[in-house]
Structures are given as structure tokens and as C-alpha cells.
Specification:
The chain has 5 helices and 8 strands; from the N terminus they run E-H-H-E-E-E-E-E-E-H-H-E-H. By secondary structure, the chain is α+β, with helices and mostly antiparallel strands. A hairpin with a 4-residue loop joins strand 5 and strand 6.
Length: about 190
């Protein structure tokens, strides 16, 4: 399986997600004035949701090429297109796929942007060439149906929130200024 995505968008999504993750750890460790568990949990849920959203929009989108066809993974929807139904692959306003001669699917992994205009959209063109060469090397299948379904990534959001909640409880329990923890000598 070949994974295709714009390296600039992926790098920006990764950097922003890691930066917000570091900010989350800092806010949990030094929450400022209010050292309560409620404020840490609230901050963890809000910052955790922002990390998940940034990753979902910038880091998650990709185009996966396999023997069965093309999987277009957008932030909140995924499209499975068998080779037999894949029409033209164009690089206009990003990367677009014609399915069954009528439907057009836009891949967010290669969406048009200011950076794409400046750099010449070379990553989308490279992806188009990779898909075309993969299509030529595959024996044509007998049939198939395109599939498009909603993919919100709620499992990853739940995992993010669980980690944020564990971090909130752990830092709250270790904080000597926490209102619920009695510290001898204070």
C-alpha cells in the first residue's frame, strides 16, 4: 500500500499538534491561580479537542493506493474507489478523482493552498503520476462499488480525552498547592 500526502501540510499538522500537546502538559503542570481538578480537566478536554481537530484536518488526510483501488481519507469522510470505477485523476485545485464518469472527489491531503500556488503543486502532480503508474500495473478487476462514509474519528478523540484526563488527575495528585491535598507545614 502506498500512502500519499502533501508533506508540508502533514509537517504543519504534526508541529501544531505537538506544540499544543506541550502546551497541554504545561497547563496541567502549572495551571496558574486555580489548582483545582475541575480546571485541569476542563483545560484538558478543551486543549485535547483542539489537538484532535488540528490533527484530523492537517495530519490525517491521505490518499492510499492499493491493489483494490484508491482510498481517499479526508478529515471527516473516507471514499473507497475501486480501480474499475476510477476515471480521470486531475491536479486542479488540489487532487481530484472522477468516479464513474460523474462524481468528483477532492482529496484534502492535496488541497489547493497559497503554499501550493507558490511551490507549483509538485506534490499533487507527483501523487497523480504515482496513481496513474499504479493503475497501469494492476490487472483490471471485474467490478466493485464506490463507497463513501462518514468517518469522524471519535475513537481517536476519546483516546485523546482519556489521556488528557489521566494527565489532569496525575498532575493534580502531585501538585502540593492543590486545594484537596493537605501539605504538612503549610
Amino acid at each position: 500500500m502506498i500512502r500519499l500526502r502533501n508533506p508540508f501540510t502533514y509537517a504543519i499538522g504534526l508541529a501544531l499538534s505537538l506544540g499544543l500537546g506541550a502546551a497541554l502538559c504545561w497547563v496541567m503542570w502549572d495551571p496558574g491561580v486555580d489548582h483545582s481538578l475541575v480546571s485541569r480537566v476542563t483545560a484538558g478536554l478543551v486543549v485535547g479537542a483542539n489537538i484532535w481537530f488540528i490533527w484530523r484536518v492537517a495530519g490525517h488526510p491521505a490518499v492510499l493506493v492499493s491493489d483494490a483501488g484508491v482510498l481517499v481519507r479526508n478529515p471527516f469522510r473516507r471514499h473507497v474507489v475501486p480501480w474499475i470505477l476510477l476515471g480521470e485523476v486531475t491536479v486542479s485545485d488540489g487532487l481530484r478523482f472522477t468516479v464513474g464518469g460523474r462524481e468528483s472527489i477532492r482529496a484534502w491531503a492535496f488541497s489547493g493552498s497559497v503554499i501550493g500556488e507558490v511551490t507549483g503543486n509538485w506534490s499533487a502532480t507527483r501523487a497523480q503520476l504515482t496513481i496513474d503508474s499504479a493503475r497501469q500495473g494492476i490487472a483490471p478487476p471485474s467490478g466493485g462499488q464506490p463507497e463513501s462514509r462518514l468517518d469522524l474519528g471519535l475513537r481517536s478523540l476519546l483516546l485523546m480525552w482519556s489521556g488528557a484526563l489521566l494527565l489532569a488527575v496525575a498532575t493534580w495528585a502531585m501538585d502540593p498547592e492543590s486545594p484537596a491535598i493537605a501539605v504538612p507545614g503549610r
